[in-house]
């Protein structure tokens, strides 16, 4: 294995994780790693699954699209991209407004954990599998996520912070999900990741005065990686029509509702960050949901009705309940805590029971990034 200075130049996930910028991350700042270790409903988790079942997938029904996608990922257009270059402007971390600084660091740590969560899951699948198609795909995705996480850690290091990724791998709790739940959740997180990154990128392209940190300049190539990962999961689901029909449609609705509402609540916890970007979090959420819904029609037979009068109301109720819950936890007020939890559950049920929009899924799933 080559000894590399930077994960951006790695060809494999193993090389990326042995690169010098990963090594340096071990000089940890406890706070950041502690934040990344959290397992709440709103923080990124690490996942494990039934790897044998995943390994048994036969991709022959989607062979043509599959080979095209794998060839494109192997050609590796983003090799060397995820590291600082002359476009990386200097950041005055000490001069940054404290509230913005705290929220931005929280954003970076949570993004780094989410990227690394993908890396760990994909790497493990690659390690455990024997199916050539599956192993190849997961190796390529793990490579990308390792680069993404490494790059975010580079940005954090300038603020004197780093997430100890080796520690996380060993010590963070792993949540078990059946393979089909991994497909729904991971497919959605890749596609919503694409929609989030491209929406910020396009917004800052039009309003460069709001680009308060250089990392946003990297979001375009970044979201293209996430787009491809989402394509791979769409193809995996396409190999078995049962995954997207019958009772499973209810599971799809559940994951859509959970992923969308989690994003809404989490983003509303970072008002200073969104103000600095010049982005209204309600507008942003609506924009990201619209894009994700449009994309997910490639494989899901339903989309959520985000124009329904109960949708925005439900999100706001969930967000308020969550804020009250956090406050009740801090003050140790059990009655308030139970009240807030009940309201959060009711808001979620209200969102989940909005009738979904159904449509016909096209025969071929393949899409290109269009936003
Ligand atoms: Fe990623
Ligand atoms: Fe990804």
TrEMBL record:
<comment type="function">
    <text>Catalyzes the formation of the isocyclic ring in chlorophyll biosynthesis. Mediates the cyclase reaction, which results in the formation of divinylprotochlorophyllide (Pchlide) characteristic of all chlorophylls from magnesium-protoporphyrin IX 13-monomethyl ester (MgPMME).</text>
</comment>
<dbReference type="GO" id="GO:0048529">
    <property type="term" value="F:magnesium-protoporphyrin IX monomethyl ester (oxidative) cyclase activity"/>
</dbReference>
<dbReference type="InterPro" id="IPR008434">
    <property type="entry name" value="AcsF"/>
</dbReference>
<dbReference type="InterPro" id="IPR009078">
    <property type="entry name" value="Ferritin-like_SF"/>
</dbReference>
<keyword id="KW-0479">Metal-binding</keyword>
<keyword id="KW-0560">Oxidoreductase</keyword>
<comment type="pathway">
    <text>Porphyrin-containing compound metabolism; chlorophyll biosynthesis.</text>
</comment>
<keyword id="KW-0077">Bacteriochlorophyll biosynthesis</keyword>
<dbReference type="GO" id="GO:0015979">
    <property type="term" value="P:photosynthesis"/>
</dbReference>
<comment type="similarity">
    <text>Belongs to the AcsF family.</text>
</comment>
<keyword id="KW-0149">Chlorophyll biosynthesis</keyword>
<dbReference type="InterPro" id="IPR003251">
    <property type="entry name" value="Rr_diiron-bd_dom"/>
</dbReference>
<dbReference type="Pfam" id="PF02915">
    <property type="entry name" value="Rubrerythrin"/>
</dbReference>
<comment type="pathway">
    <text>Porphyrin-containing compound metabolism; bacteriochlorophyll biosynthesis (light-independent).</text>
</comment>
<keyword id="KW-0408">Iron</keyword>
<protein>
    <recommendedName>
        <fullName>Aerobic magnesium-protoporphyrin IX monomethyl ester [oxidative] cyclase</fullName>
        <ecNumber>1.14.13.81</ecNumber>
    </recommendedName>
</protein>
<keyword id="KW-0602">Photosynthesis</keyword>
<keyword id="KW-0521">NADP</keyword>
<dbReference type="GO" id="GO:0005506">
    <property type="term" value="F:iron ion binding"/>
</dbReference>
<feature type="domain" description="Rubrerythrin diiron-binding">
    <location>
        <begin position="106"/>
        <end position="236"/>
    </location>
</feature>
<dbReference type="GO" id="GO:0036070">
    <property type="term" value="P:light-independent bacteriochlorophyll biosynthetic process"/>
</dbReference>
């Amino acid at each position: 294995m080559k000894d590399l200075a930077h994960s951006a130049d790695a060809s494999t996930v193993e090389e990326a994780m042995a690169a010098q910028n990963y090594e340096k991350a071990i000089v940890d700042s406890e706070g950041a790693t502690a934040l990344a270790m959290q397992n709440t409903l709103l923080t990124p988790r690490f996942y494990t699954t039934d790897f044998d079942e995943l390994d048994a997938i036969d991709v022959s029904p989607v062979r043509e699209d599959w080979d095209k996608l794998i060839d494109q990922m192997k050609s590796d257009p983003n090799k060397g991209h995820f590291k600082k270059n002359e476009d990386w402007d200097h950041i005055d971390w000490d001069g940054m407004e404290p509230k913005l600084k705290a929220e931005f660091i929280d954003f970076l740590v949570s993004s780094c954990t989410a990227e690394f969560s993908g890396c760990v899951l994909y790497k493990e699948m690659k390690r455990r599998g024997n199916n050539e198609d599956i192993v190849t795909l997961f190796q390529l995705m793990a490579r990308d996520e390792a680069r993404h996480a490494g790059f975010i850690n580079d940005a954090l290091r300038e603020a004197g912070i780093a997430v100890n990724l080796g520690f996380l791998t060993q010590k963070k709790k792993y949540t078990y999900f059946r393979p089909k739940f991994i497909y729904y959740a991971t497919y959605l997180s890749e596609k919503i990741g694409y929609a989030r990154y491209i929406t910020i990128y396009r917004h800052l392209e039009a309003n460069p005065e709001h680009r308060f940190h250089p990392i946003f300049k990297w979001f375009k190539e970044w979201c293209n990686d996430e787009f491809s990962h989402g394509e791979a999961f769409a193809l995996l689901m396409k190999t078995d029509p049962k995954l997207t029909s019958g009772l499973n449609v209810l599971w799809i609705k559940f994951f859509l509702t959970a992923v969308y509402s989690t994003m809404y609540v989490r983003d509303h916890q970072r008002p200073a960050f969104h103000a600095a970007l010049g982005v209204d979090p309600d507008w942003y959420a609506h924009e990201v949901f619209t894009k994700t819904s449009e994309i997910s029609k490639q494989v899901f037979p339903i989309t959520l009705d985000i124009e329904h009068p109960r949708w925005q109301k439900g999100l706001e109720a969930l967000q308020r309940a969550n804020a009250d819950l956090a406050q009740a936890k801090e003050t140790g007020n059990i009655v308030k805590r139970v009240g807030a939890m009940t309201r959060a559950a009711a808001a979620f049920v209200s969102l989940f029971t909005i009738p979904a929009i159904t449509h016909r899924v096209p025969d071929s799933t393949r899409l290109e990034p269009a936003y």
